[in-house]
Structures are given as C-alpha cells and as structure tokens.
Amino acid sequence: MTTTIRQEDLIQSVADALQFISYYHPRDFIDAVHAAYLREENPAARDAMAQILVNSRMCAEGHRPICQDTGIVTVFVRAGMDVRWEADMGLEEMINAGVARAYNHPDNKLRASILRDPAGERENTGDNTPAVVYTRLVPGDTVAIEVAAKGGGSEAKARFAMLNPSDSVVDWVLEQVPKMGAGWCPPGILGIGIGGTADKAMQLAKEACMESVDIHELRERGPASTVDELRLELFDRVNQLGIGAQGLGGLTTVLDVKIRDYPTHAANKPVAIIPNCAATRHVRFELDGSGVATLPAPKLEDWPEVTWGSAGQARRVDLAQVTPEDMAGWRPGETLLLSGTLLTGRDAAHKRIQELLARGESLPVDFRGKFIYYVGPVDPVGDEVMGPAGPTTATRMDKFTQMMLTQTGLAGMIGKAERSPETVDVIRRHGAVYLIAVGGAAYLVSRAIRSARVVAFEDLGMEAIHEFEVEDMPVTVAVSADGESIHETGPREWRARIGGIPVSVE
Fold first, then answer.
1. pTM metric for this prediction
2. Three-class secondary structure of residue 372 per DSSP
3. β-pairing, 254-262 with 123-124?
4. H runs (alpha helix) in 210-272
5. Binning pLDDT at 50, 70 and 90, where does residue 152 land?
6. CA dihedral in degrees (7, 9, 11, 17; nearest 10)?
7. Which domains, from first to last, does the chain contain?
8. CA torsion sign, 466 to 337 to 331 to 370?
9. Distance between first and last Cα of the chain
10. From the CB of residue 344, how many other CB atoms can be counted at a distance below 10 Å?
11. Is the pLDDT reported for residue 129 higher than 70?
12. What DSSP state is assigned to residue 296?
C-alpha cells in the first residue's frame, strides 16, 4: 500500500508540534518533577522546583513558552519506504518551513536563537532555521517524526569521550556531571550514548533524551540488561552527588538516566552525555496521508496543585535604595524579591561594551549602582509587557565580570548556574553579589516585569540591553559579598547528608 503525504501537511504538523512543545511539558516529566518536589528536603531546591511546576502550569494555561530559550530544533524522521510525496520541496526544506512558521506565529512568537556564520559574523537567521534533521528510511507507509527544541544552556553541557575498552562508563559519567555545573538547569534527564563512532554516540545520546521518564518502573521490575543496570546505578550515584535543583544542593539532580547503545569497534568505547533541562520539550507524531497530525492537548488537571510564594520568608529589596551595606547582609540561599530598575545584557552586549571601553568611548547606559540581568527575552504578545524572560547561564559572562565591576560601577548580577572560582573572588573583592533566577521558570519571572524598553544596541535583537522595571522578582543569593558560593556549599552539604538519607524514586 502506498501513502501520499502532502507538503502542507508536513509543514503545518511541524509548526503545530513546535508550538505545542513550547508551552506543554510532557506529562511524565511533570509527574517526575512533582515527585522530586515532594521528596526534597532542601528548602531552596524545593522552592526552585515549585517555581518550575507553577511556571509549567501557567504556560499550559497561557500558551506561552516554558523558557525564554525556545531552543534549536532537532527532528528525527522515520520515513516509510512506501510513502509518496506530493511536494515540490525537499524534506529538510519542508521541515524548515514548519520551523519558520512556528517561530513567527503571531499569537505565540518564539525566540529566534539560531545564528548563521557561527565562526564569524554570527548573524541571526530571524526564524530559528535551520533545524538539525536526522532521517531514516524504514519499511512501512507512514512517516513518524519526533520534534524537540533543545535549549542552548543544556546543549552547552554535552560531553564526549573516546574511552578505552576497559574504562568504566560509570566512573567517566560521575567525573563529568559535577563539571557540567548547573547551567543545564537540573533537575532533568541525562541522555547517554555508548558505542558506534564519535558522531553516532552523540546522536544516540540525543535520541535517548526523547524517551519517557520510567526509572521508577525499571526499579520495580528489575534490570534485564547491562543498559538497565547502568541506568539504575547512574541514577542513584548521580543523585548522591547532591548537586540538586539549579545546583543549590539537594536530593534530586536527575529525574532519569536514559541510555542507548550501538555496536562499536573493538578498539573503541565512544561515550556521550547530553542533558535535557527543566524545559524538556519533545513530541512525536505520525503522518499517514489523512492530513495534518493531531496532537491531543493535555488536561490542566494533569498538573499538580503546587503553589509558589515566598513573600512571607523572603527579603524585599528596593533596587533604588540598596546599598553595599545592605548587600553585605545577604546570605547564600536566601530568597530576595527585587523591585525597581534592572538592566539586561548577555554575551553580545558585553562584548560590545568591552569594545567601547577599549576605545575609550562612553557607554550608552549608566550601570553605576545597578544590577544586570543576563537574559534574552521572548518578544511580548497581546497585552504583555515582556514575554518569558528567564536567566541565561552566567558562566559565559565570567570573562567580562572584572571589567564590568571595575569600569562601570555595576553593583551586582543576576543569571543562572555557578560562577568560576576566579569570578567569585572578583565578586568578593568588589563587595558585589551574584543572584540567580530559576532556569525553567521564565513565564513566572516575566510576570514580575512591569515595564520594559530597549535602551542600547537595538540591532542585537534579543541580546539588546533592555531596562526592566520589576516588582517582587524572585531570586536567590548565589554568591554573597564576602565570596561564599551556594553552588559550592550547597552540593557539598547535601552530598554529605545523602550518605545518611535513603533516596528512592517512589
């Protein structure tokens, strides 16, 4: 039997799938985060997971992105060999047309993050194309497609090694995960690929990330293969590292460990890790010639009844009046609610500031006494002041921190994940602070923004410098003015505690 797939059906199905995953978490992921939230004993990590769950429900209700980083699109296609195409475009062209349609949807415009000429001008393509596409021809008369939108923060933490055949995969993974830090926004999923060639192992790891969370079911039925045994061992031992949600320390770092393997050369043992973050986004659909794929929307009652609100325990901060003496009293792990003016800026803006200062030119923005928020927000729609505006990984700005604190009068920074030891020392020497917002709670954070305008470098798009007026924006003190880092002390404390705490997935 031959099936005919129409070009428009594929394009619209890809577009619908990308819109769908921008605001709907997979149900298995939500259930796993909720279970981890209920088990968690570290208040800071529990608070972070509460924000992730509340944000997820808000996005499902409002049809707005879970994270401001709406990802690089990866598509796995399994095309039946009995399929005919009614199309004048190639397969990848059709997929990219769907990507462009999704990312420019007027009711839910997604952030364009893809840059052409990556080693040179790094110019934004404007519609988040092209996607990364993997295609297989298989027996059958349908086309099965899995679509994922992978955030840059988690993708940046991918790891690969060509181990010796006698080397331990477990030992290598346990060595790598602490080095990955918190920039991949745990709790999430580790996809691991073992075997094949270097490129095959990386593809296997990416495919593994698309699988459902089922570690608790594996625990109940028991391992039936070497891969099953590895999954269970790595799940336990990675969580025993105590890294915790957002790297704050805690019982849950990974919700599952997924592994795919492939035969390999006798002289090799290729191993790859790719993490999926708290904005896990993927969906599968099938085209059978009957039209555009149907994606059943989840029910709002599928989301747990979790509320978030730290007003009773948090310290309210007026950014217009905050002093170095005030900041000296903020302690790592403490929740703050910020109100007042913030400036934004990330990689491209910092590089341009550096170039202006090197030429002795004045800056277009006065940073004195201000906080900079590392963010590339989603454009607003409707009556929004600003679209989802969660933090980007602060580690990338470490190279600019000495310059910003010394030459601009900056008071502090807001981002996600850890800072390098050298940067922590720079923060200490200047009496500055570093705060974190929760990665994976971008829509929740955006609700604190009362006004927004571009104040410099408008040509940089989402990387332009914005001025935000915020009210009760939730953040956590990550590096205090005296140089104590929660990303060092938190995991160390919880690694020691976990030795005496039974950890299970029930």
1. 0.92
2. strand
3. unpaired
4. 215-221, 226-239
5. very high
6. -160
7. 1-150+283-289+298-307 (no CATH), 152-278 (no CATH), 315-491 (3.20.130.10)
8. positive
9. 46
10. 27
11. yes
12. P
